[in-house]
Amino acid sequence: DVKVTQSSRYLVKRTGEKVFLECVQDMDHENMFWYRQDPGLGLRLIYFSYDVKMKEKGDIPEGYSVSREKKERFSLILESASTNQTSMYLCASSLYRGSDYGYTFGSGTRLTVV
Amino acid sequence: QKEVEQNSGPLSVPEGAIASLNCTYSDRGSQSFFWYRQYSGKSPELIMFIYSNGDKEDGRFTAQLNKASQYVSLLIRDSQPSDSATYLCAVSRSNDYKLSFGAGTTVTVRA
After folding, report:
1. Which residues of A touch B34 (CB under 8 A)?
2. C-alpha–C-alpha distance, residues A9 and A30, integer Å
3. Cβ A87 vs Cβ A42: under 8 Å
4. What is the pLDDT confidence band of residue B1, given thresholds at 50, 70 and 90?
């Protein structure tokens, strides 16, 4: 089975801090994604990457950036954390396009910005 | 209008009953449809996908798709307490990298 590993389950950061969320997958998947999940809003796509060093904006990229220097690792960066970025962050990966077989998700990082 | 809409629930069903979950989508170009299950505090896991109109069965789960009505549903037969979770509907256009998710329907199976 594909394993998608997010480095932290819980994080507490202060407003204005630069925050790095790390995601690693072990099955040579081409595509990786970052979503945030909020009650009543569901999962919203922040950024995705379909190849090393390639990135595409999702629906809510403002306040975030990403980095994909190696195929297995996709990092989400909050340049200056704000309280409205308190959320559950989910990383996902897929070998094929999402329309083919969906994604595999990591276990999630619950980020609290105080 | 949201791209993918689901009844938020909660949907409460007795053990052994059928749970019926509904999902509508707005993009007529959508071609792939997925159901994910998410237990509280856990990440979503894929349980069904369907591409063609009609029914697709997998164990106690049946997905139903009607593209003309832009409607996809999930039936859970013989519901068990272990089915208590939030169920997320996701859709995608053909050859698209991305999935769009609904907000989820929370199901509680009472013993």
Report:
1. 102
2. 24
3. no
4. low
